[in-house]
What we know:
alpha/beta
Amino acid sequence: xxxxxxxxxxxxxxxxxxxxxxxxxxxxxxxxxxxxxxxxxxxxxxxxxxxxxxxxxxxxxxxxxxxxxxxxxxxxxxxxxxxxxxxxxxxxxxxxxxxxxxxx
Length: 104
């Protein structure tokens, strides 16, 4: 009986440590590239996030197979952010995955 009570306590404790799914929600950013800098791009997003967004691209950013790592003004992009959209103007986000990057 003590082992069962310990097991239940452990399960409840571990469940409380799990992150809430809403906290890990990742916004989809998609639209035309308006400006390109060395480590970021400005996108006029039409996705779940709407409006201008500066997106930081770094060495941790994943590019799916056959997706160009070279951004150009006028390219259409689809990007999965790390989840945090900083509410400035323009908004700011960090790219986790570049899903699509093609000349439109």
